[in-house]
């Protein structure tokens, strides 16, 4: 298997793990809707503590889904990144094409006289 395919698969796995949690999806939705925010800002909009938001943001930063930006008075704002989601989409598209080819072959086999 080529190294770039393994890299895409590994990046996609991190994205899928991050998106598996409904709280992290809510955080990503808030960032997509409202733009860059601090953990405190996000906690004010969500039913969880700032510390819980910070833990979720750390995991999402590791997956590359958000980027921390250091601002004034040691405040860190988190900005949404779309590149990891695009990699996950590429992985799913390749997987879908693989299944489409297999299903087409099966259909031709079943329809053959």
Keyphrases for this structure?
11% strand, 3-stranded antiparallel β-sheet, Arc Repressor Mutant, subunit A, 5 helices, mainly alpha, 70% helix, single chain, 113 residues, 3 strands, elongated
Report the helical percentage.
55-70%
CATH architecture term: Orthogonal Bundle
Q: Specify Rg, calculated over alpha carbons.
A: 19 Å
Rounded mean pLDDT is: 87
Query: Strand percentage, roughly?
Result: 5-15%
Poorly predicted runs of 5 or more residues: none
- Secondary structure tally, helices: 5
Give the topology string: H per helix, E per strand. Answer: HHEHHEEH
CATH H-level superfamily:
Winged helix-like DNA-binding domain superfamily/Winged helix DNA-binding domain
Strand order within the widest beta sheet: 1-3-2
What's the story with the biggest beta sheet? 3 strands, antiparallel
SS-based structural class? mainly alpha
Taken from the alpha-carbon principal axes, the silhouette is: elongated
User: What fold name goes in the CATH topology slot?
Assistant: Arc Repressor Mutant, subunit A
State the distance separating the first and last CA atoms.
Answer: 37 Å
Tell me the number of strands. 3
Q: What is the CATH first-level class name?
A: Mainly Alpha
Number of domains: 1
